[in-house]
Amino acid sequence: MHYSPEPFRIKIIESIRLISRPEREAALKEAGYNLFSLKAEDIFIDLLTDSGTGAMSQEQWASLMRGDESYAGARSYYRLKIAVEDIFGFKYFVPTHQGRAAENILSACLVKPNQWVPSNMHFDTTDANIRARGGRPANLVIDEAHDPANPHPFKGNMDIAKLKAFIATYGREQIPFGMITVTNNAGGGQPVSMENLRAVADVYHAAGIPFFIDAARYAENCFFIKQREPGFESKSVNEIAREMFALADGMCMSAKKDAIVNIGGLLCVNDENLFADIKNELILREGFPTYGGLAGRDLDAMATGLYEGLNEDYLAYRLQQTSYLATRLNEAGLPTIQPTGGHAVYVVANEVLPHIPNYEFPAQSLAVELYREGSIRGCEIGSVMFACLDPETSIWHYPKLELLRLAIPRRTYTQTHMDFVADALCRIKSRACSLRGYRLTYAPGLLRHFTARFEPL
Ligand SMILES: Cc1ncc(COP(=O)(O)O)c(C=O)c1O
């Protein structure tokens, strides 16, 4: 398969060490077979997340040095303001320390108990921030999103019929705002088309409901639109982004993804009164509105990173790196969510290990084996993360898919690293039938995947 060379060369390196197999086995045992509990220095290739794990450019490091640490009105804030206004075009914005802080502030300002917030699929922090205010998140993505083999080019799209029916059922008073997540992380990093974004905006606005975009991976989404949606081939990614954000009334963004910084977020709105509330909430929780929980240098790195994240040579390489890894796996008979999303490859673990039942955690078994085989850390997105016990019936409900997510940090790993990952998974596949499941030895009631402990069966 063709692989375009990385559009950068390496100037600073961070050493990584491949520890021996007995050392990996000991590290696994000590971590209770939970990859979140491993020490990062015991990992050779870390694909746990693409959030805040990207490599900053020389321009970003230079921007850090220009950081103005004034408490109020720093030059760094005004440099960020120019970039935010130029790229997104909203009237008002505040920086936040990361995406969930923006979600928290938006929910605090708008959500009242028992109100609903629809989206294609809420990311888990958005979901939790809406619930924390007594609200109820609703996921109205198209049905194709739930079929891993379906090749629909925009599997992040909202189901417009479901959205209309939802609004007809609950009414504008019960829906303080509506959202859409681009790309849809919870559904495999799948993009939303411009056609769908227009339709979603029309439906929300016809009902008088403000429309917010969760823009964590907006640049990757815009590049997918350019590649896949008729009529956008010759538009620049910047133009596509402007067109997308012109449809919305505001956005939340984790800058740790497409703005390629290690920390940072944004909350943008057009409504002046809402902005006044946001500033008060921000001062309470994050900091003064010109720094919002960040150091001045972080604002400068974000301003530079926002432009770099839109560079089309970079985006072409970025999406191709993800699809290269997926194609190598698919060629070896390892199924992944189709089509390949922007930031991660999702291996369908229940098809690789059909002999391991969901209550013995097949995706956890595959994730542990990948670490054992190649010192590579992925992330289980299956029954460890999502199975839940119905307190009334005492019946466990299991998710439809058992996935191993391999999230690719931006500008961090090379093609050789991707080949190393693919080769390790291929070796595992050849002895897949010998893999066994796991049993939980400790699990907290909430968000158990972070701290659970296991033992092999
Ligand atoms: C789509 C989406 N929204 C929001 C967030 C939350 O951002 P943060 O981790 O910066 O709080 C994430 C993080 O992964 C995400 O993927």
Q: What is the 3D form?
A: globular
N- to C-terminal distance: 38 Å
Average pLDDT across residues? 96
Beta-strand content: 5-15%
**Number of distinct beta strands:** 16
Sheet with most strands: 5 strands, mixed
Computed structural class: alpha/beta
Radius of gyration: 22 Å
- Poorly predicted segments: none
Structure description:
It contains 16 helices and 16 strands. With 457 residues, it is an alpha/beta fold. Strands 2-8-7-6-5 form a five-stranded mixed β-sheet, with helices on both faces. A three-stranded antiparallel β-sheet has the order 9-14-11. A two-stranded parallel ribbon has the order 1-10. A hairpin with a 4-residue loop joins β12 and β13. α1 runs antiparallel to α14. The radius of gyration is 22 Å and the shape is globular. The site of pyridoxal-5'-phosphate has 14 residues, from α4 and α5.
Summary, kept brief:
With 457 residues, the chain is an alpha/beta fold. The protein is 40% helix and 14% strand.
